[in-house]
């Protein structure tokens, strides 16, 4: 049986709206297993990003539990949550979120430095990752000087620096043209296939969503379809 | 370098113009604060030095004596010796000396018009608390020696009282010294007085001094003095006014005023009462000067002065104790305090405004950097790390401003010193503009901007640190 990395048990997330309460996630139960390549799709406002944020411990559910590698995160607070997030989860954002004045190398090693890893080790690993994502030649350039596709490659290398159990990508191609989108999705898929990196990504683009080996269709805060593609 | 320091440095480089502007404003404020303080300190030191020649750290006098009397010869303490001994016994480290003073005008010979005035201050050439100071500040001639003549056994030369005002225009005596063979008495004169009257006052010159020997119902005396040295204390007021003479000599001049002495006759004039020979009682003086040991940290000289007063008052409750600060306040009103308060006030207002500027700049940075803050949190950054990023920026602004302020102030001081700018001062003297840097103000110049910028940075820093990561990421997207 495959190893369950993240398990959501009856997760509900409610926000206070201007006039009434908004249910962003409605009693979601879900398991993500090691090695999966999961696409979360759905219309705008269906709760895709909220689900991803809850899985990534960036947001707390109003009800329910999120269990990461068997550990109930509802019982962890403050700095331990931050540490767990830093060690176990890699994030890729739609807008890349590179720090513009830092170099590619500095951007990549940043998450490692944050959780206290040694710089020498991180730089060595960063070179390897940057080579894998095909951006090693830009290692000393500043983040602001790269194209969108290049920035997202750096962001993927950054997400992998701490050897996370899972990569959560929120609209990873949302700001890219179709050619760059294809390259980035190919890269993520390659990481998944060749290195066994578990990836969960959110996309509203059906072309991109087709990359998912497992597709979760969301609507009104609920998973309406959970389909595995052979 | 820690992550937070690296990111803080990154932010500083990114916002160098706005931070630079804030730093320049704070640095200029602190530099002007330091400079003005140093200048006030200098001016106050000039006044203090003048005042301390009269009072040292404190002065014990009769209860009916007021501050103004200390400048003159109004007061006499008959058991000054006992008081001095008592203070030295009860307060370890305290030094005392008995001061004898007289007011004088000086002239060359009897035909020349007396020019200007001075205060003759008696100095015990071995034990007085001023000896070392005077020796060190000699610029010409020499200090007193044991071979120098004192007034012992001398006969008054002639007594002269002249107008204007309520004094009758009478001159006693023929203008001739009774004992021509008596040597003149040595005096050490302020260099500023020599500069004002170079033809009258220089080393080796002999003068006649018309002395108001004791103002309470006394006569005037005339004594012949010889200038053996010039001293320069750095404070023209002192140099122009205070002349030093061996205290035995001055005690004897004072004794002319004692009408209970033996009668004697001045040829051609008639009977006159006085002493001959005069018995010097070294226990009697105008006041007892007290020099206290310096405080371990001289951050609060006025407070130290007050504590010295309290200690002495406990030992001699029947006498009045004045401190140098009393004279300073008397001399300058509360000018020093007012100027100091104004200085602190204006600095405070500017710093508060700079504090607001730092806060609002950082607030705007946080709004623009929401996405980065959110990302850092997503990568595992704790609240404390985010807090530190902004606090390091605050420390940087504060430290650079403080050091820049000190550097600017030193630069201005050096330039002013190098140019040797002078200004007209009292009694026709010129005072070189100078600065006395007080370590307390240097510390304040450095610490205050740091404290201010830390306080100002702490509010936005806390706000950034407390941002939930998902909210920071979402707001960051909106701000894009």
Question: Helix- and strand-based class of chain A?
Answer: alpha/beta
Largest sheet of chain B: 7 strands, mixed
Oligomer: heterodimer
Overall 3D shape of chain B: elongated
Strand order of the largest sheet of chain A: 6-7-8-3-9-10
Distance between the termini of chain A: 18 Å
Mean of the pLDDT scores of chain B? 78
Q: Main β-sheet of chain A, in a few words? A: 6 strands, mixed
Coarse morphology of chain A: globular
Mean pLDDT across all residues of chain A, rounded?
Answer: 88
Number of helices, where a helix is a run of at least 4 consecutive DSSP H or I residues of chain B:
14
The number of distinct helices of chain A, counting runs of at least 4 residues, comes to: 7
CATH superfamily of the domain at 36-42 and 77-228 in chain A: P-loop containing nucleotide triphosphate hydrolases
What is the CA-atom radius of gyration of chain B, in angstroms? 32 Å
Strand content of chain B: 15-25%
Counting structural domains of chain B, the number is: 2
How many beta strands in the DSSP annotation of chain B? 17
Which fold does the CATH topology of the domain at 36-42 and 77-228 in chain A refer to?
Rossmann fold
User: Could you name the ranges of chain B where pLDDT drops below 50 across 5 or more consecutive residues?
Assistant: 161-180, 214-219, 257-270
Greatest chain-chain contact: A-B, 28 and 27 residues
Distance between the termini of chain B: 30 Å
Structure commentary:
With 230 residues, chain A is α/β, with parallel strands linked by helices. Chain A has a domain at 36-42 and 77-228: P-loop containing nucleotide triphosphate hydrolases (Rossmann fold), CATH 3.40.50. Chain A is built from seven helices and ten strands. A six-stranded mixed sheet of chain A has the order 6-7-8-3-9-10, sandwiched between helices. In chain A, helix 3 (104-114) crosses helix 4, helix 4 packs across helix 5 (148-160) and helix 5 (148-160) packs parallel to helix 6. The longest helix of chain A is centred in the last third of the chain and has 18 residues, at 178-195. Chain A is globular and about 50 Å long. The model of chain A has no long low-confidence stretch (mean pLDDT 88). Chain B folds into two domains: 3-47 and 336-479, no CATH class; 101-279, no CATH class. Helix content of chain B is 49%, strand content 18%. Residues 161-180, 214-219 and 257-270 of chain B have low confidence and may be disordered. In chain B, strands 3, 4, 5, 8, 9, 10 and 11 form a seven-stranded mixed sheet that branches. Chain B has a four-stranded antiparallel sheet with strand order 2-14-1-15, sandwiched between helices. In chain B, helix 2 runs antiparallel to helix 13 (439-466), helix 11 runs antiparallel to helix 14 (469-479) and helix 12 (383-419) runs antiparallel to helix 13. With 480 residues, chain B is an alpha+beta fold. At the A-B interface, helix 2 and helix 3 of A face helix 1, helix 11, helix 12 and helix 14 of B.
């Amino acid at each position: 049986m495959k190893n369950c990395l993240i398990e959501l048990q009856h997760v509900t997330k409610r926000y206070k709206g201007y006039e009434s309460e908004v249910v962003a996630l409605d009693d979601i139960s879900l398991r993500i297993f090691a090695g999966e390549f999961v696409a979360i799709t759905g219309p705008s406002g269906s709760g895709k990003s909220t689900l991803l944020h809850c899985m990534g411990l960036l947001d707390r559910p109003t009800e329910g539990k999120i269990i990461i590698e068997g550990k109930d995160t509802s019982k962890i607070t403050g700095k331990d949550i931050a540490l767990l997030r830093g060690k176990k989860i890699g994030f890729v954002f739609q807008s890349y979120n590179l720090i513009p004045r830092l170099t590619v190398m500095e951007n990549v090693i940043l998450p490692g430095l944050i959780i206290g890893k040694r710089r020498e080790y991180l730089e060595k690993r960063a070179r390897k990752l940057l080579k894998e994502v095909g951006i090693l030649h830009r290692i000393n350039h500043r983040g602001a000087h790269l194209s969108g596709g290049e920035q997202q490659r750096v962001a993927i290398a950054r997400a992998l620096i701490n050897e996370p159990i899972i990569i959560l990508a929120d609209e990873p191609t949302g700001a890219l043209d179709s050619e760059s989108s294809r390259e980035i999705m190919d890269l993520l898929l390659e990481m998944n296939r060749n290195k066994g990196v578990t990836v969960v990504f959110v996309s509203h683009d059906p072309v991109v969503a087709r990359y998912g080996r497992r597709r979760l269709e969301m609507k009104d805060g609920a998973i309406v379809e959970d389909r595995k593609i052979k | 370098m820690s992550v937070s320091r690296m990111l803080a440095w990154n932010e500083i480089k990114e916002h160098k113009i706005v931070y630079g502007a804030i730093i320049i404003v704070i640095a200029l404020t602190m530099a002007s604060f330091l400079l003005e303080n140093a200048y006030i300190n200098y001016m106050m030191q000039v006044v203090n030095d003048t005042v301390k020649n009269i009072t040292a750290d404190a002065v014990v006098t009769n209860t009916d004596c007021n501050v103004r009397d200390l400048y003159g010869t109004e007061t006499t303490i008959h058991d000054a010796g006992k008081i001095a001994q008592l203070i030295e016994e009860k307060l370890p480290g305290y030094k005392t000396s008995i001061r004898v003073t007289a007011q004088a005008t000086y002239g060359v010979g009897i035909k020349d018009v007396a020019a200007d005035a001075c205060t003759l201050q008696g100095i015990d050439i071995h034990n007085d608390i001023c000896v070392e100071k005077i020796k060190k500040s000699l610029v010409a001639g020499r200090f007193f020696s044991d071979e120098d003549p004192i007034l012992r056994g001398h006969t008054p030369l002639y007594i002269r009282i002249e107008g204007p005002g309520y004094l009758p225009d009478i001159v006693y005596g023929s203008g001739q010294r009774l004992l021509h063979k008596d040597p003149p008495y040595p005096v050490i004169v302020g260099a500023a007085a020599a500069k004002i009257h170079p033809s009258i006052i220089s080393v080796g010159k002999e003068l006649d001094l018309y002395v108001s020997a004791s103002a309470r119902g006394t006569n005037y005396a005339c004594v012949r003095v010889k200038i053996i040295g010039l001293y320069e204390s750095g404070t023209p007021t002192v140099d122009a006014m205070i002349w030093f003479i061996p205290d035995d000599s001055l005690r004897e001049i004072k004794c002319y005023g004692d009408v209970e002495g033996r009668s004697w006759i001045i040829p051609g004039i008639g009977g006159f009462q006085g002493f001959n020979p005069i018995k010097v009682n070294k226990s009697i003086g105008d006041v007892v000067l007290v020099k206290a040991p310096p405080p371990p940290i001289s951050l609060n000289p006025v407070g130290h002065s007050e504590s010295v007063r309290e200690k002495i008052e406990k030992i001699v409750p029947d006498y009045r104790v004045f401190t140098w600060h009393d004279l300073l306040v008397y001399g300058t009103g509360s000018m020093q305090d007012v100027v100091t308060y104004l200085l602190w006030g204006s600095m405070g207002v500017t710093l508060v405004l700079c504090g607001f500027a730092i806060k609002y700049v950082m607030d705007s940075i946080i709004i623009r950097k929401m996405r980065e803050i959110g990302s850092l949190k997503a990568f595992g950054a704790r609240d404390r790390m985010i807090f530190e990023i902004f606090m390091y920026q605050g420390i940087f602004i504060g430290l650079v401003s403080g050091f820049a302020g000190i550097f600017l102030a030193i630069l201005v001081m050096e330039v002013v010193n190098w140019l040797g700018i002078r200004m007209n001062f009292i009694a026709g003297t010129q005072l070189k503009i100078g600065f006395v840097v007080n370590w307390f103000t240097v510390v304040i110049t450095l610490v205050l901007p740091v404290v201010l910028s830390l306080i100002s940075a702490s509010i936005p820093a806390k706000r950034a640190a407390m941002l939930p990561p998902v909210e920071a990421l979402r707001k960051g997207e909106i701000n894009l």
